[in-house]
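Problem 3 from the worked examples.
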Amino acid sequence: MKVVNSETQNISKYDFKPSYTWPNPAFPFRVYYESKKCRIFIIENIQHNWKWMSEWHQNFRETDFFFVYCGWYHSPSFAKEADKIFSLLNLDKKQFFIMYNSPLEMQNFAEKGFYGDVINHNAWLDENLVMRPLNLEKIYNAIYVGRRSKFKRHILASKVSELALVAGINHGNAVSEIPYYKYLNDQQLSAEEVCEKINQAHCGLILSAEEGACFSSSEYLLCGLPVVSTESKGGRDVWYDEYNSIVCKPTPDAVALAVEEFVRNPRNPQCIRQKHIEQAEKYRAKFINVLADVFHRFGVKDNPVEYFNDKFYHKLRKSYKPDFQAIFGKNYS
C-alpha cells in the first residue's frame, strides 16, 4: 500500500534529512534469502537506512521483502519520520514487516499504517553460546553491564553496595558519571569474561528510561540473574515478571532497595533462564510464521522451519559494508 504523506507533497528526497543515519560504511544489513522468486532482507530501523535506500529504492523489486529490526524505542516521532520516508521514496508498506520490541511500539506504527508484530529482538540471542549460569560465588550485590553513556543513568546505582560495572564502547554518546564501585573493567572484556562477572552478582541492573530492548537485560536472564530495572520504553520489560525482576522508580533509594531484595531472597537461576528461552521460542515461531507467509506469497518451496534453523545465528543480523551495486544493480533474466 503506497500512501502519500501530506507533509512531503512539497519536498523531494533531496531536501529531506533524517534524524539519524548509520555513520559508518559498515552497519546492520543481511540478505536473508535470495532466489529468482524473491529476496528477503533484514535491516535495522527505517531512518537509519536512509542513505542507501534513497539511492537504491527505485531498484527494489515487487518480490523484495524487508524484515525491520527495532534497535531503539520506536516512538510516535519515529513512526512519523518513517511514514515520511515511505512517502518520499514511494515505498510499499506491504513489503516491510517491522519486528517491534513492545506492544506500545506496534501501536505507534500501526497508527501510520505499518505492518508488523511484537517479535522482540532479544529472542535472537543464541542461548547455546556463552551466557548461562555458572554456579559461582556471589561477590557483588549487583552488576551493570552497559556502555558509559549518559542515557544509561549509572548514577542511579549510587546507593548500591558491592557494585560491579562492566563498560563497553560508548559509540560517541555523552559520558555518564559513575557511582562508587567494587569492580570496573579497565579494558574490553570477552563474552566469556562478561558471563563470569554476571554470574558473580546477585542481580543485574538496567537503569535507562529509553533505549532498545537491551541485549544486556536478556543476557542477565540467560545467566539466571534477576533484573532490577527502572520504568522504561523500548521493550526490555516484556521479558520481566514478578519472579525474575523488580521494576522500580528511577531513584537511588529505590534501586538499592530492589537490589537488597534479591540479595536477601535469591532466585533459581535455571528457572529464570528457562522462562527466557521459552519466551524467545514463541517470538521465533512468530517470525517463522511470517517467513512461511512470504514463501507462500512468492511460490518459494523451501521449508520455513528448516530454513530458519539453518540460517539462524546470534542476533540474526550482522554488520558489514553491503555492496548495493551487486545487490540492487543486478537483474535476473
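Problem 4, a separate protein:
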Amino acid sequence: MPNVDHAELTAYITSIFEALGAPTEDADAVASHLVDANLKGHDSHGVIRTTQYVQRTQEGRYVPATTPVLEQDTAATTVVNGNWNYGQVVAGFTMDIAIEKARDQGISVAVAHRGGHAGRIGAYGEQAAAAGMVTIACVNLHGGGELVAPFGGGRRRLGTNPIVFAAPTSDPDEPFVLDMATSVGAEGKVRVARNRGVELQPGWILDSDGRPSTDPLDLYGGDPPGSRERGALLPVGGEVGYKGFGLSMAVEFLAGALLPAVATRPDDEVGGNALFMTVIDPEHFAGRALFEQALSDLIERVKEPPFQEGFDEVMTAGEPERRRKAQRMVSGIDLEET
C-alpha cells in the first residue's frame, strides 16, 4: 500500500481536475477536500473518489468551470443551482452564502441542487464553525442512488443521507462537528472494504435476498458490479434502526422535497448531492462568547471520569478526526492500490 505526503497528493489530484477543465481554484478546492478527508481518517470520502469524479466528468454528468447561480434569494434564504459543478465547489459556495445571511439576519437557510458528490459533509460544518456559526446540514443523493433499506425492509429505498451538527467552542481549533450517515455507515466504507478484500462487521448490509451479509461484494451485486442483484445498506441503530430510518426520512424532505432535486426515487443514478444548510449566528442569541464557553464547559464535563469498562477516555465529535490528521500529517497517507 503506497504512502504519500499530503502536499504532493494534493498537487497531483489538483492537476487531474485541471486537466478535466476545472479552474485552478476549483480543482484545488476539490483536491484539498478529498485529501483532508484522508488526513482525518475518512478514506471512504478521500482520493478514492477521484476515479468516480473523473468518470462522471467524462460522461458529461459533472461540468467543471460552470458557475453556481441563485435561483431564489431573500434576506434569510436562498436556492442555489450548482449547474453540475463539482459538489465541493457548490457546497462551499452555498455555505458561504448561508454564513453571510446568518451574520445579518441571525439565522439562514440555504439549499442547493444540481451539484456533484459533495464529499465529506463535515467539512462544511467546519467551515461554519470557523466563522463562529452553528450549523445543521444534510444531503440526499439528488433524488437518485438508492442504497439503504428502510427499517424492516429488504430492498434499497433511500440514500445514506448524512447529517451534520457543528458549532464553535472557546478553542477555535476544536469545534464540535458531528458528521454521520443515517445508514450504519457510508457506502464508501464498504467500497474500501471491497478494495482491501476484507469482510464487513455484521449488521452493515443485506444481500439481494434481504439476508444479513458481511461480504462487501453483495452490496454491489458481485464482481464485476451488477453481475447479480445488488444488496442494501442498513439504517444506523441496529435493533433500534427505526431511529436511523426516521432521520433518513427527515433528510429526504429537507434536502430533497424542499427543492427541485426532489426526494429519492427509483431508477435515478444522477450521482450528485442536494444540500440543505441552516446556519445560526449565536451573536444574535446568547452571544458568541457565552455560547462558545457554555459548549466548552459541557465538553469538559462529559469528558470527566469515571469511564466504562474498556474505555480510558471520552471523545466528542470532531476529536477523532483531529487526532488522525495530526498523525497523518507526519506519517503520510496510505492509499489503496485499486
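Solution to problem 4. Residues 189-232 form a domain with the Wheat Germ Agglutinin (Isolectin 2); domain 1 fold (CATH 3.30.60.50). The chain has ten helices and twelve strands.
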